[in-house]
Amino acid sequence: MITPSEVIEHLFCPRFTYFMNCLNIPQHEELRYKVQKGRELHSRREKENKEYLRKKIGCVDKELSVYVASPVLRVRGIIDEVLTFTDGSMAPLDYKYTEYRDYLFVTHKVQSVLYAMLIKEVYHMPVLRGYICYARDGTDLKEIIYKPEDFKYAVSVVNEIFNVILMGYYPKKSSWPNRCTDCCYKNICV
Question: Full-prediction pTM beyond 0.85?
Answer without folding.
Answer: yes
